[in-house]
Amino acid sequence: MAQIKPLSALMYACKGNDVSKLIAPPYDVLDETSKDRLLQSDSHNIVAIDLPHLPSKTVGPDTAYDGAGRRFQQWLADGVIQPTSAPALFAYRQSFEARGHAFQRMGLIANVAIQPLAASDAGPAPRGAIHPHEQTFSAPKADRLKLMHATGIQLSPVFGMFRDECGMVGQRLVAAAAAGPPLLQGRTVHDGVLHELWPFADAEAIVAAFGDRDLYIADGHHRYTTAVTYMNQCGAQPGRDPAGCCMFVLVPMEDPGMIVLPTHRVLGGMAGFTAQRFREEANGLLALTPFLDGDLVSLEKALPGAGPHALGIYYGSASSPRMAIATTVGPDPLAETHPHRSEAWRQLDVAVVQHLLVERICEPTFTPGGKVTWAFPHDLETVAAMTDGAEDRLGVVMQATPLDAVQQVSDHGELMPPKSTFFYPKLATGMVLNPLA
To answer: Can you tell me the distance from the alpha carbon of 132 to that of 415, in angstroms, rounded to the nearest whole number?
Structure first.
């Protein structure tokens, strides 16, 4: 079962409690410009350790990781970062805006005893399993492993979620935040999100309330699988040794701040693409309804309730945009081609795009013998910019993947297609660090 426990945290020692200049977004969303901007704000920003090599998610030279390790040890010696007085659990609140509305999201920062991820070939997972929903790749894991060995620290938490139907955990999180001013607070500049942290006065109560709930990884699959490898290489015991634990931020799925935003698609490399040919080849698989009333924002808003697996189709140019709503002809359009998959997986819009729109329509028609190219913009402006005037490209406006679908697919031990979920906002790196020795 999933075992949560307090962690012997390391934190920034700063005047007051404002760590805005010291925290950062996760390493994998940063580039050279954004890293430099953070370091110009404060040379002790956590990005100096967490992203020693660019581009992110690639493996750098050993000297880069060794330098990060030496820098971190110097920060410890100088008192820039200090250990807390005793192991603790923490309530973590993010306050943010999404799509014109204000939200707050409460999570529990805790160590979780490492266990193998639930897998489809292992039969039904026992209670308290840890479920993935994304595929991982070798280069990001190798990069994070080198950094963990060089620093002996888990720098970024894994974003996890769980069911809290009765609100037992959520109520304790809210109570912890209401008990007094935050221990630390900071605002990430790139998205304006406010991050706040409170310690729990009674860690045993929250551990008992948590029980044997299943955990689902929302974000941080590479970090978790790297932690498993690190534990094995160190010969650590799961849940007993520091390296046998992995720091999570655990958020109830029922929290109103559990926001999943869509990740859109731009398909390219389709020489000879024409709307007429696309419509002809889609006949019998997709129903295409021209959308003449408004822009991409209006198109996105029209998708819910428009029909099964409603997708927005965009092509043309800014001066002459062409838009349509595509819906599947049948309610289970992947049943024939993917009968071995669960119904929950087959009902994913992202699976329909990949295996019906792309593999059965676009690739056979416009890239015979080859593959379309993919881009995954989060915002509609980028969809338009990447598609406008490009005769070989097609923009696909997506609906967000529901949280229930993430759980159902994970419970079947299946992985989703790439870029299926965009949990917003990202967690901050640098609020709490987890020593592994």
So the answer is: 7
pLDDT tens-digit readout, 312-345: 999 987 677 799 999 999 899 999 999 999 999 9
d(CA 423, CA 208): 27
Provide the pLDDT for residue 291: 94
CA-based angle 105:110:112, to the nearest 5? 120
> Residues 82-93, buried b or exposed e (16+ Cβ, 10 A)?
eebeeebbbbbb
Domain ranges of the chain: 4-259+423-435, 263-399
Q: What is the pLDDT of residue 38?
A: 97
Token couple for 234? 């160190």
CB neighbourhood size of 64 (10 A): 17
pLDDT in tens, 3-28: 999 999 999 998 889 999 999 999 99
The span from the CA of 49 to the CA of 173, in Å, is: 30
Token match 């297609």: residue? 417
Whether pTM exceeds 0.85: yes
Average pLDDT across the chain, whole number: 94
pLDDT beneath 50: ranges in the chain: none
- Of 251, 257, 254, 258, the C-alpha closest to 108 is 251
pLDDT score recorded for residue 124: 61
